[in-house]
Design goal:
By secondary structure, the chain is an all-alpha fold. The chain has one domain: Substrate Binding Domain Of Dnak, Chain:A, Domain 2 (Up-down Bundle), CATH 1.20.1270.110. It is built from six helices and no strands. Helix 1 packs parallel to helix 3.
């Protein structure tokens, strides 16, 4: 994967992180990522740094879903708001 593609993936996962934190369902799940000090806007950082950040974001996102039940997540108003924007064919799954 090219560095530019890694930065785009990093940015996408970073936005998921911000959404989960804004919804109040992430409680310390991203501490390791935050400590790393590599954000998507840090395009001068190495490819390896962005890969490490991506892995930490994936772990944090995974931990949120591991720690929260689907029912709890679906009760969250911010998550429900986003789900309402999805097309019906996606909601059915």
């Amino acid at each position: 994967m090219h560095k530019e593609e890694l930065v785009v993936l990093h940015l996408t996962l970073f936005q998921v992180k911000r959404f989960l934190e804004g919804a109040g369902v992430a409680n310390g799940h991203f501490r390791e990522y935050d400590k790393l000090g590599v954000n998507p806007v840090h395009i001068h950082k190495s490819k390896a740094d962005h890969k490490r950040a991506i892995l930490m974001l994936c772990k944090g996102i995974s931990d949120v879903f591991k720690d929260k039940s689907a029912e709890d997540l679906l009760k969250n108003p911010k998550i429900r708001e986003v789900l309402e924007l999805l097309p019906p064919e996606i909601k059915a799954h």
